[in-house]
Prior knowledge:
With about 100 residues, the protein is mainly alpha-helical. It has helices at about 1-15, 20-35, 45-55, 65-85, 90-104.
Amino acid sequence: xxxxxxxxxxxxxxxxxxxxxxxxxxxxxxxxxxxxxxxxxxxxxxxxxxxxxxxxxxxxxxxxxxxxxxxxxxxxxxxxxxxxxxxxxxxxxxxxxxxxxxxx
Length: 104
């Protein structure tokens, strides 16, 4: 789902950050956007990972969401990616690319 990909990308951006103030701010935004149960874009995480993040949010680092990011990556790998490969839009793209290369 879209929120999983957006969460994963936000975590990648956070990992690049070195400024402590910006790490705190970006961590808070990621938490509010994807971890909080009040968020409409909440990602699906198990309770262990969620509790771990809640503890780490006391002193966030660039790696606060690593466990959650891995869990979401695994979910996308097992679910979203195979569904994408079977989607009509992907199959249409492959057919059009195939037709283009055979015409060359």
